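fyi for ur records
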Amino acid sequence: MSSRSERTRCGRRDLVASYALALLDSNEAELMAAHLTVCPECQQEYHAVGGLTDALSARRVQELPLPTPLWERLLERIAHVPQRKMPSSAASAVTSSVAQGWQEPLWNEVAPGITCKLLSMDAEKDRVSMLVRLAPGISYPPHSHAGLEELYLLEGELWIEDRKLQPGDYNRAEVGTSDQRVWSESGCMCLLITSPLDELR
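which gave:
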């Protein structure tokens, strides 16, 4: 039996983060813009994610996504192939592309049911920021965290071990910790800031 708060929760609230990140199509974005003028609950959610979207916008101006080799590395790690260091030629390609201006990154399927949109990468600090989508019923491979991992759930539901995350929830995993089971029954999308050196098992 659902609680009173669940029954009265606005059905469009789960779309607020996607609207703030400009991920909705034009028709849905127009509907959400109109809805925000009359829904205090969604207005509060929009202001809550404002700092996150402002930070992402600032990073977009400064940094560009890595070219295709990053996705090749992700595929290799998911397939349990030992990870290789990014060649200096790829790093040079990223540096030279900065002068060309921002280009909207594409969604890439890195494993069946798992797609990613790379937002930025700091090779010196081993930090990568990306949007990650899991299709319904998909699990992310067990992995160990080579660096601090921060996850903000934007849409759907996500289980990390025995903790169920809903839109707006935040999860922090410390260096050296591991996740054995990460999966979504409904499908989900999250913002993930982590190390590209995480070890998949």
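The radius of gyration is 18 Å. thats all i got for now
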